[in-house]
Amino acid sequence: MDPLLVMKEKAYPFLSKGRPGDWNHTLRVIEFGKILAEAEGGDREVILAALVLHDLGWSQVDYSDFVQAPIFQKKETQSVKDHMVRSTGLAEEILTELDFPPQKKALVLRIIRHHDEPEIIQAMPEIEATIVFEADRLDRFGPESLERYRQMFDGDYHQKAQEFLAYGAKTWFRTPSGKRMVQEFMARMATD
Fold it and tell me: I want to staple 66 with a disulfide (CB 3.0 to 4.6 A). Which of 18, 79, 96, 121 is the partner?
């Protein structure tokens, strides 16, 4: 059986109990990760494992502080920090069960542990960390995620989101492919 499919099957019970839309978010970022890995290189197995498992921890934390925090302060909430720790622990269990290669597992876990900390993840020298971060961030610009966030957050989210995403488009992306993809999303958002 396809190892990625097995990993997704193990992740689904957690992702279906996390924040609304976490499963579909994961499916989208996997696709972004494939595109970025094809263009930028890196170990595809590490990238896809990290993307499948990066948000498992939302199923284990109370994320009400995340929902209530202003958009530019969401990454500072306790639940964001806790979900990265919990995701790392759950990912380690799944990767161990699947006999994932130890060196690759260590990198996957390090990426997951810091995936929502741009200042740390962008300083990591491995292209895999950059690709996982960019794939995860790209999903914030798509129409599915904008609708998901509109439902999850307060009524004026859309207005605040435009400013936040414009900031992110300038600061989150380092790879040529990531920069190109985010500019395409921004252009689409401007016409919607």
Answer: 79
Dihedral angle over CA of 153, 58, 61, 19, nearest 10: 30
CATH code of the domain containing 177: 1.10.3210.50
Q: How far is CA 155 from the centre of its chain?
A: 24
Are 117 and 111 in contact, with CB atoms under 8 Å apart?
no
Residues 6+ apart with CB under 8 A from 81: none
For residue 63, the enclosing domain spans 3-191
Tokens of 148: 């998901």
Could you read off the pLDDT of 72-121 as tens digits, one per residue? 888 899 999 999 999 999 999 999 999 999 999 999 999 999 999 999 99
Tokens of 125: 């020298």
Residue type, 63: Y
Tally the domains of the chain: 1
